[in-house]
Amino acid sequence: MGQAEQTSVKAVKPLAATESRTRSIAFVALSIAIIAVSAWVTIPIGPVPFTLQMFAVTFAIIVLTPKQALAAIAGYLALGAIGVPVFSGMRGGIGVLLGFTGGFLWGYLVGVALAVAFLALMRSRGIDNFGTCVVAGIIFTLVAYVCGWAQYMVVANVGPLASFAVTVAPFIVVDLIKIVAATAAARAVVNALSLR
User: Fold this and answer.
1) C-alpha to C-alpha distance for 31 and 55, rounded to whole angstroms
2) What pTM was computed for the model?
3) Which of 18, 79, 132, 169 is 20 to 30 A from residue 94's alpha carbon, by CA?
4) How far apart are CA 96 and CA 119, in angstroms?
5) Radius of gyration of the chain (CA)
6) DSSP state at residue 109
7) Domains in the chain, please, with CATH?
């Protein structure tokens, strides 16, 4: 290989890396925006409102790479913590994270980490199907439920059953439907964009 050819090859590699990084940043930013918009779609039924966040986060878990998914949820929480109104009811600030529903938000980060780890493990074994994606969504949701249930119990100073009745019970069926719908939508996007 001549010197001119070597220079040409070296020039192409950084460009490909830059395009890949730019695409990754765009995916993360778009996911943060989708999660924020889904939080604004709110049906207040008590201290914990119905939102489309479980759909949006499950969608991101399936479509994005593990690093991108973690970056998206961390970025979303960071924006909300500094006061950008990205949480449900167009609220923001550290007070929301420490309030009645803040446990769900913290739980998103832990839940996403566990869900993407599960998906990465399954994909490393050659298993990437609808069922594994649904299980990843369920893992994420269960972690969010546990964190939301625990923080509500402490902040509202109520017992475990009372907290469960407010934070988990009303949402189980609807969230299962959201997980299945998000999985179907995400797998369609992955196939259409040839992301895997």
Assistant:
1) 12
2) 0.86
3) 169
4) 30
5) 19
6) H
7) 3-193 (1.10.1760.20)
